[in-house]
Design brief:
The chain is an alpha/beta fold. It has a domain of 180 residues: Aspartate Aminotransferase, domain 2, CATH 3.40.640. It is built from nine helices and nine strands. Strands 1-7-6-5-4-2-3 form a seven-stranded mixed β-sheet, with helices on both faces. A two-stranded antiparallel ribbon has the order 8-9. The mean pLDDT is 92.
Length: 290
């Protein structure tokens, strides 16, 4: 079994700061030597744009970029690597869904549901969207045990004992929840919640913030049964400035691009722009990572 000193050998920061005690991993993790070396490898060996060149180092950069997409898809058990979109962070990933899907499907009188334990990134975008479009914004409260008030805190949570009928209705278009609360550390029984929500309203779109979950526990998007998940690399030993949005391909294909320009276009005419297919159409200014 590795001890603390063995683990510290993977992090250059402890060579330079041997007395450092780092207690802020929930905000951002330290970066191991392998990650730093990979970033340096890019800048020293193939520092070219991806998807935009047919010369050797550009093709190498593109190959490395797309290999990362394949690794991420496998990591979260996505059906298709084209379901993985790279953003700048979790916040941008959630906002992408808000702008590209939320504004398309939300109408006056519809409902958007989230919880009081959410990070601002999974709360404010839905709050603002509700106010702008005249939707009802519902917020699930928590009990004294830090659990959502749809659970019976005295028994093990199962789909049978979740009380969601007063929260999710046929008018609920979007349910946005965190898997692990960044404030409380609460692990929400998401699989059970999703099952009940989909039973009440089969057409509901479920967006999950897994930024605090994915570094510490298995996140299987197919097993969860949600429609979108969002997370950031910097909370799981990866570089800053890199986020991930996973979404079901059939939904991504119907969504309009979040940002315009860059490499997310297939063809541009004076009177028409044809966008690339997902995921490229959402990566107008792609980051280079890992």
């Amino acid at each position: 079994m590795l001890n603390t000193q063995d683990i510290k050998k993977d992090f250059k920061i402890f060579d330079n700061n041997p007395s450092l005690v780092y207690l802020d991993s929930g905000a951002t993790s330290l970066k191991p030597k392998s990650v730093v070396s990979k970033i340096v490898e890019y800048y020293e060996n193939y520092p070219a744009n991806i998807h935009r060149g047919i010369y050797k180092i550009s093709e190498k950069a593109t190959e490395e970029f797309e290999e990362t997409r394949r690794v991420v898809a496998k990591f979260i058990n996505a059906r298709d690597e084209a379901e993985v979109i790279f953003t700048r962070n979790t916040t941008e990933a959630i906002n992408l869904v808000t702008y590209s899907l939320g504004r398309k499907i939300i109408e006056e009188g519809d409902e958007i549901v989230t919880s009081i334990m959410e990070h601002h990134s999974n709360f404010i975008p839905w709050q603002v969207l509700s106010l702008e479009l005249g939707a009802t914004f519902k917020v699930i409260d928590i009990n004294n045990n830090g659990q959502l008030k749809i659970q019976n805190s005295n028994v093990k949570t199962t789909s049978k004992n979740l009380k969601m009928e007063n929260v999710i209705t046929k008018r609920t278009k979007i349910l946005a929840l965190t898997y692990v609360s960044n404030m409380l550390g609460t692990i929400n029984p998401l699989k059970e919640i999703i099952q009940v929500a989909k039973k009440i309203n089969p057409h509901i779109i479920i967006v999950i913030d897994v930024a605090q979950a994915v570094p510490h526990m298995k996140v299987d998007v197919q097993d969860l049964g949600c429609d979108f998940v969002a997370f950031s690399a910097h909370k799981m030993l990866g570089p800053a400035g890199v986020g991930v949005l996973w979404g079901k391909k059939e939904l991504l294909d119907e969504m309009f691009p979040f940002q315009m320009g860059g490499g997310m276009i297939s063809e541009v005419k004076v009177n028409q722009t044809i966008f690339a297919e997902s995921p490229i159409k959402f990566e107008g200014h792609p980051v280079l990572l890992m």
